[in-house]
Amino acid sequence: LAGLRQARSDAATPLAPVLSSHWDEDRSWTLDAYHGHDGYTALRKALRMNPDEVIQTVKDAGLRGRGGAGFPTGMKWSFIPQDPATDGTAKPHYLVVNADESEPGTCKDIPLMFATPHALIEGVVIAAYAIRAGQAFIYLRGEVVPVLRRLQAAVAEAYDAGYLGRDILGSGYDLDIVVHAGAGAYICGEETALLDSLEGRRGQPRLRPPFPAVAGLYACPTVVNNVESIASVPPIILRGPEWFRGMGSEASPGFTLYSLSGHVAQPGQYEAPLGITLRQLLDLAGGVRAGHRLKFWTPGGSSTPILTGEHLDVPLDYEGVAAAGSMLGTKALQIFDETTCIVRVVLRWTQFYAHESCGKCTPCREGTYWLVQILERLERGEGSEEDLEKLLDVSDTILGKSFCALGDGAASPIMSSLKYFRDEYVAHIAGAGCPFDPEASALVA
Ligand code: NAI
Ligand code: SF4
């Protein structure tokens, strides 16, 4: 949080701390602290609206999913049948929060839940009310036990205060929340694999359509939303869609959390309007580490095509990053300076995807294995020019032909690194080893 605190002290910065505004307060995670900042006031307001009005407010705000894909949140909610009693299905509705944050470089949902778990819980109650769900689940990445404990304690506080359970705040609305810890599989962040895992099965993606809104948890209409998306709902309800639209752009309105990591002077979470640029964020974060210069970066974690110093002024919103040939994704900005070997970084990412591939489809299961073999060969200095064509060929066989987004994520850094740094791959071949670090070859041998 250090970067955030320092940046916020300057009133001239383009930051917009909303979700993160109280993260550094003493005992910020308690209900008392949350009450001190209008906590659960938005819930009181939402319960006086009818569920359709709540959905319309989120639609009017233009909130887009913060898990990576940017799908409009209000529209997703409106896909849920209007009323379980009268929609002909009589099936219960569920809200599932995807808190399985695992994309390399992504570290926004975990700090949010750790610092202000009630911001998420208030959002859950409002969202569940809007989609007429009586049961919500928070599916948390299993490795972060301190966050699990903090969420469980906050849920207990919310029950005691009448924000959960029967007849919430005298409205007649009932909701229960279960906090569920996953078992550490990256693929369980894919929404349908998450649902399988929640149902007690091995987490593997399901065929879509049907999307979860039609047939999700236990084959019932289900909304799956990211933590940051849900936590953004209470401020929208409280301050209105116009206030939210006053930040960001027409197509990508509002504020969001950017995570800066790697070779940057002050890594951390920086909350700003969508459309801020990396140049502005680096100014706030003290720049690339002293004495070094930017070489390449990821706009949204390692699944998104890399960008370079040419892209410092790209607006970091969905359209701006797409126009630059990448994706905004999770807004995980990993910064690499000129001391970094591109082949080694791409190899490390590819090893991760090969390890996390669930094995369901052939392009990803086999392709990621072969990509690792080729990249290891190149990094050891035993590769050939033909290997570069093989890398592109295997990546092309994965991209757009895999069952879920993990395959695309594995191929993207390889294809984009060859686009910008082919010379560096060739240098590994010509010099029979890594030009950055001769000992690196031994490390992957
Ligand atoms: P997607 O674009 O297929 O779907 C996005 C959301 O919209 C889903 O909830 C889906 O159910 C819904 N949706 C899309 N079309 C729909 C329709 N016609 N009817 C009803 N609902 C519809 O993207 P996907 O595969 O869910 O997510 C991929 C993204 O996840 C990537 O962009 C990546 O950035 C991100 N990601 C995030 C990670 C993290 O740790 N937060 C980890 C890995 C990837
Ligand atoms: Fe599994 Fe990979 Fe296929 Fe996704 S793309 S279903 S992770 S094998």
Distinct small molecules bound, one entry per kind? 1,4-dihydronicotinamide adenine dinucleotide, iron/sulfur cluster
Name the structural class: alpha/beta
- Record the strand order, biggest sheet: 6-5-9-7-8
Q: Given the structure, what is the number of helices?
A: 19
Largest sheet features: 5 strands, mixed
- Outline the low-pLDDT stretches: 441-445
The 3D shape can be described as globular
**Mean pLDDT reading:** 94
Description:
Helix content is 43%, strand content 11%. It has 19 helices and nine strands. It has a five-stranded mixed beta sheet. It has a four-stranded parallel beta sheet with strand order 3-2-1-4, with helices on both faces. Helix 6 packs across helix 7 and helix 16 runs antiparallel to helix 17. The longest helix is centred in the C-terminal third of the chain and has 26 residues, at 405-430. The protein is globular. It starts with a helix and ends with a helix. The model is unreliable at 441-445 (pLDDT under 50). The structure holds 1,4-dihydronicotinamide adenine dinucleotide and iron/sulfur cluster. The site of 1,4-dihydronicotinamide adenine dinucleotide has 23 residues, from loops.
